[in-house]
Design goal:
11 helices, mainly alpha
C-alpha cells in the first residue's frame, strides 16, 4: 500500500500543467479511483490516526483537482486544522471565496503556512514576476507577500477572486497558479508527515 501511495503522490507532485485556480474536472479520472481505493483506513486503525489519514485522502484528491471527492473527506474532519485548510482550498478552487475564507479562519495559523510564506516571499523577491506584471491589485498583492511575516490565505483568495473575475490581465494567472502550487506542496508535505506513522 505504501508503494501505491508513493507512486500516486509522486505523479501528482510532478504533474504538468499545475493545478488550475478553478478546475472544471479531475486532472486524471482514473487516478481519482486509485486514490479512493487506497486502503489507508481499516477497522484496526486507531481513532487518533483517523484525521491525518482522512486529510491525506482529501489532499491527494485536491492535487488531482477532484473537488467533490476532496470535499467529502474534508467534511469528515472539520475539527482538524489540516482538514480545515484542505477544505478552504477546495472551496476557493470551486469559486466559493467567502466559504474558503471561513475555513482558512478555522484552520488558524497552520504549521504549513510558515514554510509556504518563506518560499513564496523568496520566489517573489528573487524572480522577475513583479517587473513582468502591469501595475494593479495583483502586482501589489504579490509585493505584499514579499514583505509580510505570515501567509495570508484570505489575501491570496482575494487575488484569485480578482483574477477569476476577468477584470485583470491574464498575465498574472501563471504567478497565482505557481503560488497555489507552493501552497498545495507545503500543505501536502505537512499532511503526509502527520500521517506517516499511521500508514502501514
Amino acid at each position: 500500500m505504501y508503494k501505491a501511495l508513493t507512486s500516486i503522490a509522486e505523479r501528482l507532485e510532478s504533474r504538468q500543467p499545475l493545478q488550475a485556480l478553478m478546475p472544471k474536472h479531475a486532472w486524471d479520472a482514473a487516478l481519482e479511483q486509485q486514490i479512493e481505493d487506497l486502503p489507508l483506513i481499516t477497522a484496526a486503525t486507531p481513532r487518533a490516526d483517523l484525521p491525518a489519514l482522512i486529510a491525506l485522502k482529501a489532499g491527494l484528491h485536491l492535487l488531482n483537482e477532484s473537488l467533490a471527492a476532496s470535499h467529502a473527506h474534508a467534511q469528515e474532519i472539520e475539527d482538524d486544522a489540516t482538514g480545515c485548510y484542505w477544505h478552504g482550498i477546495m472551496h476557493r478552487m470551486e469559486g466559493d471565496f467567502s466559504n474558503a475564507n471561513y475555513w482558512f479562519h478555522m484552520a488558524g495559523a497552520h504549521p504549513a503556512m510558515q514554510r509556504l510564506q518563506e518560499r513564496s516571499a523568496d520566489w517573489v523577491r528573487n524572480s522577475t514576476i513583479l517587473n513582468d506584471l502591469p501595475d494593479g491589485a495583483i502586482r501589489d498583492g504579490l509585493a505584499a507577500i514579499a514583505r509580510q511575516a505570515r501567509w495570508n490565505a484570505s489575501a491570496f483568495t482575494g487575488m484569485i477572486s480578482l483574477q477569476e473575475s476577468g477584470s485583470v490581465s491574464e498575465e498574472s494567472r501563471g504567478a497565482l497558479e505557481y503560488l497555489q502550487h507552493l501552497e498545495l506542496t507545503e500543505l501536502f508535505a505537512h499532511t503526509q508527515q502527520a500521517a506517516r506513522h499511521a500508514i502501514v
